[in-house]
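Quick one: examine this chain and its backbone structure tokens and tell me how the chain folds. Here goes:
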Amino acid sequence: MLRFLTAGESHGQALVTIVEGVPAGLAIDFDAVTRELRRRQGGYGRGRRMAIESDRAEPLSGIRHGVSTGAPIALVIPNKDWENWQRTMYVEAEAPAAASGADRPAVTRPRPGHADLAGAVKYEHDDIRNVLERASARETAARVAVGAIARQMLRQLGTDIVSHVFTIGSASLGDPLTVTYEAIRGMAADSPLHCVDAATEQRMIAEIDRARDAGDTMGGAFEVVAHDVPPGLGSYVQWDRKLDGRLAQALMSIPAIKAVGIGRGPAVASIPGSKVHDEILPGSAPRVVGVARPTNNAGGLEGGVTNGEDLRISGYMKPIATLMKPLRSVDLATMEVSPAAVERSDVCAVPAAAVVAEAMVAIVLADAAIEKFGGDTMRELAGGWKAFADRTSARFRR
């Protein structure tokens, strides 16, 4: 229904994406798209690359006079750093005479924890740069641009998406489910790590500083909260239509994400059912599903279907694979023990990963909304949602 492809390398000319399935009639705010791209570049612990790039998505097709036409939308995000990499990343058989930048040697020492070795084996590359340039998290800038468009679609249905960081290394906020959507939405945009608790955030910063001083990296965890999600998205009738499965795959596709939780997540394995399942009581607030849920341990999803509560999904990010004090590896050109290659990188990118996760959640929810409410235009989509909401609200009136 709503799908996209990306292309481009970390130090190539640009990132490119084609988005298919955006209904006609969506007024797209590209300043809002740029703001999302800038959010992805922020966060304490980012590297020098973020000071070089100033990401902006340039629309090429599928939009006329600021409004989607229903045709595929093509976007390009130029890489400003391309001017320093032309002699290394040229696409022609030989470097153009005017190419700039250094002519860098082949990369032959794979980094533990990265796609370097597995990619070189799969595609039979001698130069690992062919792997790392595409496997780089730089590709996620294109996803954030697509997610920004999906987010604008969802706002037509009343849905908003936010995120917060709750763990960096050993510094943790504790139970993320105690953090309300309103508290996350109320955080300052320039919060260093986008943690709702200032004291915890300072402990997180100290963890990152210690890792930087040691030539190491640091991972962590974040939670994405989607507020006012339409109930009834997804399905329980087939495995590949379950929304929790689709969301988990979307987040697991983000580089360095090693685990995903819905609602209370892995903790449900050690809690009795009486403390896990969310009771259903008569509701008083004017809601689409007119019942009250005193808790939201399910994270807004039951049986692969949204139930009207806030959607809460957490992601767990491993430390970045590039270390300034590299681990042991093997030089594939000589098969001798050698330190792993060192590429320009971050110490910690958990807040950035949370922004990418917001984008992926927006894309999955927008796709599910089109699937549920149908239509080739935003007017049809919004009308389908309103008709469903009116019918459902009427069913739950006492």
Summary: Residues 350-373 form the longest helix (24 residues). The chain has one domain: 3-395.
